[in-house]
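Entry 12.
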Amino acid sequence: MRSFLLIGLLLLNAIQYVPSPSSALPTASDAAPNPCCVPILTDLRGNVVASNLTAGAQYVIHVTATNYNPSSDMNATILVDVRDSNGTTTWLDWQTQTIRPNETVESGMSWMPQYPEIYHLKVFVLSNLTSPQLLAPTITADALVG
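Predicted 3D structure (tokens):
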């Protein structure tokens, strides 16, 4: 498990966004939205938690991804990296999905912050884990845990 986590962390540090014809970022002329959104935290009952997170409590990180291509499926691995205030990855999880044309899917990943501090969440939408290409710009958000 540790070696796989280490490989995953090395991958995250090496990945750069390289647009391809199927994953190019929109220009002002076509103005297609970003396929990924800011992560939303909820408690286990589904209530959105925007502040006052508690160390040791379990939360769900929700991320949606949309395939704006009208004619082909999009294979996507949604990866969430949570780092502490020192920049150390404390939690890493991902889900792989095939998203049909013009479809939006949601991924929910369980997370339990261990200590009170500010955590930095990074969301990556990758083509896969074996030879990853970013399909969208990285999304970041902070979570204050008391």
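Annotation: The longest helix spans residues 2-14. The chain has one domain: 2-18+33-145.
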